[in-house]
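Work package 3, deliverable 3.1, input record:
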Amino acid sequence: MDRLQSAQVEVTAAKMLVGWTSEFAENVHREARRLAAQSGQPQRITASQYRHAAVTALQSLRETVEAEVDRDDRQTAA
Amino acid sequence: MTVKRQLESQNEPSSETISEDANDWLFQFTKLFKLNFIDRSGNLPSATAPEHFWITATEAFLATLAESGANPAVVAAMLSELSFGPSNEPVNWTDELNAQRFALIDKQIAGTLNLGERAELIRLTEAMRRAIDSERNLPFEGARDLHRQLMSRQRDHLEQKRRSPR
């Protein structure tokens, strides 16, 4: 952390980031759970399944954030 | 803050597991903890001493535990156990600990007790209670000592009588 250029972060922004990371984690787990069920071993979720699930969850998060960016842009333009 | 802890190799398959319930609880707890920390850190200045982050983190941690249904008294007892060891182990209540507690009570009366000191006062009060309640400090233990002394004297007396019969 650069002390000389320390900035203030809007509380809304900090909470938004918490929301994204939480949504991402929940989506990874949900998708990995689905993959584990598909593999025939629903009682054990592996690191590999989490990695595959993370790729899907990243795409989902990207779409969520892009929709929010579009909304910001529309509000700025209006 | 510098994070020193390294993640274990994520490429090696692990035989260790945690339950899905624990995993889910962790997600929810960390999310709530972060939100509580953010809510409480709004008044911190830019160049904040680490102590303020520790206090804010402790406040956020306790608030998150309370929101998850934990009883504050149980949490205080758990913190005391973590500091002084399991409750079945006696606390060595020293003059120094006693003086520390009185100093904190004075600050509490003066209204200058900060959160960290409040936590310390709770911890010390709990430790003092445990020291007072411990078995060795109960009157029963005194009676036991007296019994031991009496038995010892009786043995001495009988021994003397055996050595010098009339």
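The helical segments of chain A are 11-38, 47-77.
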